[in-house]
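Hey,
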Amino acid sequence: MFRYFPTNYVWNLSVDLALEMGAKIGEIEEMCAPLLDVSKQGDDAGTRLFMQSWVAMADKLCELAAEDEAQGRLLSAGDKLNRAASYLITAERMQGYGSDGRAALYARFQEVFRKGVRLAKENCERVEIPYGDAHIAGLHVRAEGVEGPAPILVQVNGLDSTKEMKYRVGLPRMLAKRGIASLIIDQPGTGEALRLHGMTARYDSEVWASKVVDWLEGRADVDPKRIGLEGVSLGGYYCPRAVAFEPRFAMGVVWGANHNWGEVQKRRLAREGERPVPHYWDHVRWVWGAKNMDEFMTIAEKVTLDGVLDRIRVPFLVTHGEADKQIPLEYAHRSYEQLVNSPKRDLKIFTPREGGIQHSSFDNSDNAANYIADWVAETLGGRTA
């Protein structure tokens, strides 16, 4: 794990995630050097200063992109805007629920991200899936070199990530080269579903996952028999739960085995393990729509895979980082052991030899993502060479 801030895991997590999204180390230095002292005051203190420093870098990149655009250098402009967007979402993610300027910062991030993708001519299309009175937004990445309906991997967030973050980390790009399309979504409790539509998380993830499958089955470019599901971090709960109760999924994979998230919350109350974001308890109550801690803990008790995984009757891959500081490694073994009816269950623990040993491999995602992409391609009928 790259530790820019010697004493602050939560802030280092944001820096490492930004690097996995394509941040440049010189820009990281410029943004983080002024924050070293305040980072020593804990996770929550100084998050506004963090935002100001990272937004200033995004501002500069947007100015440089505008100069490129004025000269017709649209690809260069798109590259800078894409990096600026990553810095904006990193800054937004660090702020507390309801903090001043957070909503405006998220809106700006969305605008910069979409323009960057368009100018850079990336294989990435925004889609909207009807859900309730609103929609679930997603990013669709086409499979490369495939004629006719293609297999597709739906990818879902964890507690605090967004579809754009997952897109930037690179699994969809790797899958596209293997002939597998991607649909990365902001499911309820994450991204714009939470921020723009007030859709809070639900433990019965099959409810929204089934709506996504319904939508995919209506697309001519999707093979309805080869729809898989992947989840990262808390998605390591949402994904297996959905696959267990939605039989149309052809396979599942978790990037971080979040087998019993309710139990993790009890450990965090006891100050065991690391947290992913500042202002943590405010954040989780916002995500789950809980008015107070008692209500939140009652909800959290339902977020467990015990008694669920024996329903899965399709191939399933469980992955976990050996040195995960947020979710116990034992959960990966528990999930694997309970997949008793999967015809192809595999367990992969990422070790120091290949990297990706931290939570959901944020320390080095490429080797882990390639492993997952190869397994998905082999399972859904893509290619690995």
